[in-house]
């Protein structure tokens, strides 16, 4: 019996002597105060700027103000249970987000927590949310169009892959609808989409996600969500996290579209955090680096050179204006950063002209180079005719006596406007758009009554379905629209519009 105990004691003695404790260095601090969305922390002398901190209850925070005696922390979760005296631990790395193909079709928050009830994301790879933008020599020119499926944009304000095109307008003018139509039109075009909702109402986000699911767009879309009732820290990091997810795919040589909805909420969240952290306010109480937070975000959107895979990241940031003031602080900042803007007019929206794109105030600075040659051949005259119409329409409202040529320009402009109208979630293919534009520039719609224009335009679009696959390939190539192809399209349009032409004597359809 004693021999058995002797052997056990010997084993215990050997285990004790061979044991080497594994020491891990941890740096623990304490909360000194908590406010709305921020906390003040002391006792972390080696913490770095933007380092991730862990609070009790698995709440994360970012070291934002690193002062000599105190650290200002932006909280990234439900902070209501935190109180002064609670422990805070350094994690030794910056904020990162999970990336990978398994994110496609998923809905997550900016720190990678799934929100769709489908379980873990199934990816171990992570990227920092803040990454340097590609160097100038690593970029290539914008040369391939990103078809939005919206006639007025594809024809008059084209967007290229790798471009940054701002969408701005007052609230409830259809900004999100344009972004959604663009996402829906990427089906079958080998373009991945990332939709980033920043501080939106939960009902609005749910509606967007329901539309994406109904239209089958979630198969190629990642949704990053922060709702309006969440801490401002999550709204601040959301667009950076979404961009890192998009950059992962871009660096694989794929084409990606990212929508920021919207950066007005992002700027306001950053202003709120900065004021709470006692940073000096500037114009409209925004901090002095408000321009930088958006420029370092949007500069990450680009078209990479062939040596780096040739992938692209196209950005559609959305901004909300107040009382049509596009010269306000944040809108002018974004206009100067981006490669053009699509302005949505409340006046056009109230008149039922949807999408309510104000062509005169909208511009695409680099998209014209990427636009298909088939478009350029028919839209040059269209832009001029539409600009003349908008100018003359203003004078016509005064009841002035107009000559026949002026009346003809006005009537033609009304047909252009009618053809550029488009319902929500109904993207138009390139062949259909070209057919309508060719018919417009040939004045085929001018004899048709305005009330019959929707049906007439639909007839031309239906006729475009008979365009051969060979011709469609030529339209989508870099070749100009040949005379033969234009003649074929014109003949199709004429045949489709025969039943809509009105008799000049009776004014009735033939």
Automatic annotation (TrEMBL):
InterPro entries: Alt_ATP_synth_F1_asu, ATP_synth_asu-like_sf, ATP_synth_asu_C, ATP_synth_asu_C_sf, ATP_synth_F1_a_nt-bd_dom, ATP_synth_F1_asu, ATPase_a/bsu_AS, ATPase_F1/V1/A1_a/bsu_N. Residues 371-495 form the ATP synthase alpha subunit C-terminal domain. Residues 149-364 form the ATPase F1/V1/A1 complex alpha/beta subunit nucleotide-binding domain. Keywords: ATP synthesis, ATP-binding, Cell membrane, CF(1), Hydrogen ion transport, Ion transport, Membrane, Nucleotide-binding, Translocase, Transport. HAMAP family: ATP_synth_alpha_bact. It is found in: Cell membrane; Membrane. This is ATP synthase subunit alpha. GO terms for cellular component: plasma membrane; proton-transporting ATP synthase complex. F-type ATPases have 2 components, CF(1) - the catalytic core - and CF(0) - the membrane proton channel. CF(1) has five subunits: alpha(3), beta(3), gamma(1), delta(1), epsilon(1). CF(0) has four main subunits: a(1), b(1), b'(1) and c(9-12). The record marks 362 as: Required for activity. The gene is atpA. It holds the Pfam family ATP-synt_ab_N. Its EC number is 7.1.2.2.
